[in-house]
């Protein structure tokens, strides 16, 4: 019997060590059948097995079945809750422990640290000291992690560690190195590193310093530490290589990255998922190609979720590769990995780029079904951005309203959504609510606010928020803030003031500033200022067609045919071609694309016939075609041909197809790569009235929601 008990115990320990849940459950069944006398010792090991395998329900059941639980029983289950980022459950269990010990406190502090709950961790640390329970290095390491974003607290904990002798723990020093580095306190990190001495430092210490310098784009320093590490004979492991790749990526240094890739191939580390994800990221950011990144992926025998997330993230950063990002997600699922918060955020970003609400809704459903305990708020923020950019502002607001808690990104996302849709009042109302609850706005918040003011013509409000940003919140305006102010003034017809702002702002004016001014000049008919803005744009980016096209159109409006010929000749000589207007909409999980004068769509005859009928209807309702927007090559073209060209603009084709292919009352959402023209904007108002449909068009600047003969922009665009 004694031999059987010993064998049983050893087998159970091996199950815990190897996370062998299947064998462990068989042993537990034998144990419950009383083939062995029940003991707290064995019960604790079953709690530990289930906790380490992530089966917390089974772990809790095993705990409840323990006749005489001791502090180890509680700690085993507590560790399971902590590892699964469930601090509320952990705290509830902790409060049930009759006499919590040091391990109990360290485990709960670790749970709070993983969730970034600095206040809760500090409260527990204070309670621990009041009960005269001596801390150790693991306590201090956990506290440093919990307070990682509070520099003042970091320094206090550092002082405590030195005063109480905890600085002899390598884990304490490594935590200090990591979080001093993340907060940009590189000198403090270096001082800790030097003070550690050779006898305390380990590979983690060296890697932490390399990462610290790499994150803050000081690749040269990171390289110094790497060389010193190699010179001293310290083993270069996967974490070292990954840290160096981070440094090279931050420097945009592909040449050194290639050399390190070669070294990792020689040592076999390129097959490691940790190194592989660093290589994938490096190639995508440092001038390599996604083909190179994909080759790295193919060489990893068993890529983990981090590798897949890195690939999806790299694809999603390139607008042209958004479909590949979603395909990569499918491959990830087929390989047996579940998407997490990072996966959903990147995939939803690709849906936004593709303007694919149906795929976005599928991902939303998958996110609801998937257990994401760690960072659900990040996924919700991505959903708000996706629905806003796909024209479903109501859905975006529903997600926002259902969130149990918001952070600044949540507010920025929904405010930006309202700004894009021309709902300035709602955006400003949300900002005021945000201030009332003491949430501190960021520079992105003010970009959204200024954009909302620009789209709704609230010039004085825009000035007030611009000054508030500087004077009340100490945020230095960046180029984007000035671009929003230029847009605000230009739309309101204050072109002289906009020009002065461009000339006096503390940045070299970029494309956005001059393009905004040029667009406003056409709207307000300011020819001389338009020529100046166009010339500036041509110097900044000689191959961009925008200034040439706008200038030629303005010359046409003013009847300056010689100048039109001159600009068009300049375009021909420089090989510049106008980007064709392109509109698309998603219907039954398929994207339909339309280009002006393109007859490739199989339903084009029905679309043209429908448009002919619709134009007759809206003319009867008062629509008058604006022939200024009929872009033709000749100057003597008749009105009939001009009207036909207007009728075949891409957004009209897309809307007609949507009306033909959907049921009565169904909303239509169309995306366009350029700014909607004045004639199409006017026609859409009449079409929405005649068809009794809600028609949303997202152009290059904003959303236009046409309903009952009106547009959400109030004709201010």
Automatic annotation (TrEMBL):
Q: Which InterPro entries match?
A: DYW_dom, E_motif, PPR_At4g14850-like_plant, PPR_rpt, TPR-like_helical_dom_sf
Give residue ranges for domain DYW: 622-717
A GO molecular function for this record? RNA binding
Write down the PROSITE patterns for this protein, in alphabetical order: PPR
User: What is the species listed in this Swiss-Prot or TrEMBL entry?
Assistant: Linum trigynum
- State the PPR repeat positions: 70-100, 101-135, 202-236, 304-339, 407-441, 442-477
UniProt key word Repeat: yes
- Family annotation (Gene3D superfamilies): Tetratricopeptide repeat domain
Membrane-spanning ranges: none
* Annotated signal peptide: none
| GO term, biological process aspect, one | RNA modification
Annotated protein name in UniProt: DYW domain-containing protein
Keywords, in A-Z order: Repeat
* Keyword Secreted tagged: no
| Family per record | Belongs to the PPR family. PCMP-H subfamily.
Q: Which PANTHER family match?
A: PENTATRICOPEPTIDE REPEAT (PPR) SUPERFAMILY PROTEIN, PENTATRICOPEPTIDE REPEAT-CONTAINING PROTEIN
